[in-house]
Design a protein that fits this description.
Elements lengths: L1 E6 L8 H4 L2 E7 L12 H25 L13 E11 L2 E11 L2 H4 L7 E2 L1 H5 L6 H13 L2 H11 L8 H24 L16 E12 L10 E11 L5 E6 L11 E2 L1 H7 L9
Helix pairs in contact: 5-6, 5-7, 6-7
Bound molecules: zinc ion.
Length: 277
């Protein structure tokens, strides 16, 4: 027996049957035999790659047909040339034809020099879909770059779409992006917490904070079952580092305000109600 998987685009404007369909995959199996039951992983990867390729090429073609006109006057832009660009997705890498178009004459009439533009290049500037970027960075955060890359290649059709160095560069790129966001947050003026005066410590050079939820083993109708403990370490410019911890407000066990953890309070003289210091 043979299983024939076809893909057909139906945009609702024309007769889909008339436009025909594309054969995505043909799966051959011996008749009346269950020794090879269902799709194999390799077959699944191949089907996904073919479907992705068919879908993306149609989406790009239709998008380009709607983005090759001047935005001022609506005139069609003249074609200069085209080049191939590479798009990486979770279901494979594909080459896309990206046309370069001359700017409209309505712009040059105002004295501006004529130039060319590539709408598709601008639309997919990163050349990678957010899903693939997310998976690469997520697994590279748990595993060495090489193992993360090998894992993704094993379960997804990414033979030619990702590499060890590509994963490493992706992680570095996202890390730089996060660093920039943190720098922007630090540069902003601190806002006072509602109902609390913000205290600023000039001699603190670094503060590290961690948080965990503890679950009470015994059920109680009067107390919440979970409590949030926040702990951290402050490094000072001119004195020894200091450790602090407290129960977060409303975290349960009847905590209505921040309360220092007793053991750390004894060892490090944390005052009742002290936070973030
Ligand atoms: Zn124009």
């Amino acid at each position: 027996m043979r299983l024939i998987i076809e893909a057909r685009i139906d945009d609702g404007e024309c007769d889909a049957k008339r436009e025909g369909s594309t054969i995505v995959a043909i799966v051959d199996r011996r008749d009346k035999d269950l020794s090879q039951l269902g799709l194999t992983l390799a077959e699944g990867r191949s089907v996904l790659a073919e479907v992705q390729s068919a879908l993306v090429s149609q989406q790009v073609a239709r998008w380009l047909s709607a983005n090759t006109h001047c935005r001022r006057c609506g005139s069609p832009l003249s074609h200069k040339d085209s080049r191939s660009i590479v798009l990486r997705t979770v279901f494979g890498k594909m080459a896309l034809e990206s046309p370069r178009l001359w700017s409209c004459t309505c712009a040059t009439k105002s004295g501006a020099a004529r130039h060319s533009t590539s709408p598709l290049c601008k639309a997919i500037a990163k050349r990678v879909t957010p899903e693939l970027e997310y998976l690469q960075v997520k697994w590279a955060a748990h595993l060495p770059f090489r193992q993360a890359t090998a894992l993704l290649k094993e379960v997804l059709p990414l033979d030619k779409a990702t590499s060890f160095s590509g994963t490493r560069n992706r992680v570095r790129g996202v890390g730089a992006q996060i660093d920039a966001e943190i720098e922007r947050d630090i540069a902003q003026q601190p806002q006072a917490i509602a109902g609390e005066a913000l205290r600023q410590a000039d001699n603190v050079s670094c503060v590290s904070v961690d948080s965990a939820w503890l679950r009470c083993c015994e059920k109680s109708e009067t107390q919440a079952r979970h409590v949030n403990i926040v702990a951290g370490r402050a490094t000072f410019a001119k004195q020894a580092p200091r450790v602090y911890a407290y129960c977060a407000q409303g975290g349960g066990l009847g905590c209505r305000q921040a309360r220092p953890v007793p053991s750390l309070q004894r060892r490090h003289s944390t005052r009742a109600g002290e936070r973030n210091q």
